[in-house]
């Protein structure tokens, strides 16, 4: 039998692939079994149901690695920008994002928002650290800053159909706007 971690990774990887390519409605135990070749019984041993499987896949996807210890302001801001959009960019994709906005699959939307709250908490910690050490103004609202980053990302994709040099341009804007 394959290594337990490898099987778990294949299950979540397949679930994420289905989510990105066909939307949340395509992510079922049966579809993951068919796509991955992993027996349904093996999937059910790990995940009680579709909801548990989706939660595991989304949680794996949206758990940011903290910035390096003693990273400078520039590195922490780059980390913030990359991780603020990671849930969409490297995660659910714009198809999943569209489903979230239209609430096409309420179960998925609820799970995504739940997991997103945990991911954003890690981002807020970094914003609070930047405020505490004087790297950015103390009156910055962390949630609004994160929303602005994600909103700029989505707007760029809507405006141009791609993201291109978005991160560099946004970083330049943030660096100027957030000077103390």
From TrEMBL:
Gene3D superfamilies per the UniProt record, alphabetical: Homeodomain-like, Tetracycline Repressor, domain 2
Record's keyword terms, sorted: DNA-binding, Transcription, Transcription regulation
PROSITE patterns on file: HTH_TETR_2 (PS50977)
Segments forming domain HTH tetR-type: 5-65
InterPro entries xrefs: Homeodomain-like_sf (IPR009057), HTH_TetR (IPR001647), Tet_transcr_reg_TetR-rel_C_sf (IPR036271), TetR_C (IPR011075)
Positions of the DNA-binding region: 28-47
GO function term, MF aspect, one: DNA binding
Superkingdom of the organism of origin: Bacteria
Descriptive protein name: TetR family transcriptional regulator
Gene source species: Mycolicibacterium neoaurum (Mycobacterium neoaurum)
